[in-house]
Amino acid sequence: MTTEHARDWSATGCVEPTSSGRHYGHTGCLMFNIVAPLEMALRDGVHPLLAEQVGPHTGDPSTFTRSKI
Questions:
Q1: In 3-state terms, the chain is what percent helix, strand and coil (to 5)?
Q2: What is the pTM of this model?
């Protein structure tokens, strides 16, 4: 990285220094919606916003049983 680019930085989120416009920060991993898989499991694999079958068929949630792990 050149000195000029090193001096042209910004904070991504609250703690990650990034080269402005030249780097995709690690905070991008937070763009994963952890609730979407649960919503799809409860909707037989249908994504609530896309209204498309994108997950596996899971069936009727009233028939789900508790796992004995």
A1: 30, 15, 55
A2: 0.51
